[in-house]
Design brief:
heterodimer, A: about 250 residues, alpha+beta, OB fold (Dihydrolipoamide Acetyltransferase, E2P), Ribosomal Protein S8, Chain: A, domain 1, 3 domains, 6-stranded antiparallel sheet, 4-stranded mixed sheet, 4 helices, disordered C terminus, B: alpha+beta, 5-stranded mixed sheet
Chain lengths: ~250, ~250
Amino acid sequence: MERRNAKRAREIVTPGDVLAASDEYKPGDNTYELNGQIRAQIMGVKTYVDDAVTVIPLGGCYMPVTGDTVIGIINDIGPSNWMADINAPYPAPLHVSEVPWKVEFGDTSRFLNVGDVVLLKILMVDESRKIQVTMKDSGLRKIEGGQLVEITHSKISRVIGKSGSMIQMLKNMTDCRLFVGQNGRIWVDGDDANVEVAVEAIKIIEAEAQSPNLTERVRSFIESKLPQTAGADSPQNAGDNREESQ
Amino acid sequence: MSGHTDMTLVNDQGIRIDGRKVDEKRPIKIEAGVLKNADGSCYLEIGKNKVLAAVYGPRECRPKHLQDPTKAVIQCKYNMETFSVSDRKRPGTDRRSVEISKLIAEALENVVQTELFPRASIDVYIEILQANAGTRCAGLTAASVALADAGIPMRDLVPAIACGKADDHVVLDLNKEEDNYGQADVPLAIVPSTDEIVLLQMDGNMTREELDHGLDMAFGAAHEVYELQKAALKKRYSDLAKKEGAGDE
């Protein structure tokens, strides 16, 4: 996470808007320079990061970045690979050498089938935007049970919260297991009633991502839906902020 | 440009049949994000024109042979509804809609940063719900708002407006009667930040001086349309913020 300047103007800019003069700031993400002026390239919120001016997008499609953990849905099977849909403009091939099992040639469908949901990591994205994904990392696996929620990928950072505060609260208060994929898919598993509240809470986060004090409001929402018992902050939920092992 | 009429298109006071002055454009209403299922959308009214634009993508390019390994392709489909004109329009693609689709796609290619999405396609659908001259300008204006609404990186928005000649007057933003019985129709689309021209056509005849004068008016009007486009995009998010402030739906 980059450090952001304290004077954070929450100004919405549209493509072509002049953000700053280029001798004052450097052009950051989603900006371009034209005749000594830095202009926005995308619709979003103008933000200063150190000495650069950037635009945080308000929407748009997910572009995979090496190292991202994502939730993929298998949509095609080949003799030595699977194709996963990871919500990006490009298909993500998962090769048999990148899964934790020993798969014979042509035996792929015994392990993963069309429609299966898997936790993946982006192994590589090359300059022509060809993607490779892997399942060979700790915590990556096929998902069974639970519920999948899809939100705009740009709002994922709000679901995680500052150093995982939001996601930690969601986990503790709803007693659910959550996995957040950078591509905007969130997997929630737990008791039916709790999952329902967690999903609703995530929808609130998505709808109100732009507003301040979101964590507190989500907390009071969950409290109103699920009266917290004394032992709500159960210790088994204090794992890392991404994933709970089974 | 085709027919003849006894109608006075522009009277001695320089007032047109719909009460506008020669350098006045029709009232414009733009709304972004009107469709839920598309990635980006826009509804636009200019005078009696009603246009709906929707954008999908960038997504995997189908059919595959259209893919470009260096950049995204913009696939545009301009379509007029059967009920958009006073006689029933025969539905489906015709020569005119193929031309306009190509024109709009090429205009948009100049601003969209297609090189960021190699092999992908960005699909733009423009539906003309009601037509009253100037639909290609209206369609392009709406499409660029829809693209920005979809969060697609682009250099700038593209405002478009027409100028022309009717009853020997150079006029801005022609309506149906002026288009049909006037002497020239010149649609123009620009990139406001650089004043580049991305679309310019001329149907009919004008002198060089008339064209220069008409384009001056159209450039000015296009910058006004640009402000409306930006306002529409920003309004979408200020509305959202207001709704949040009021609490749950």
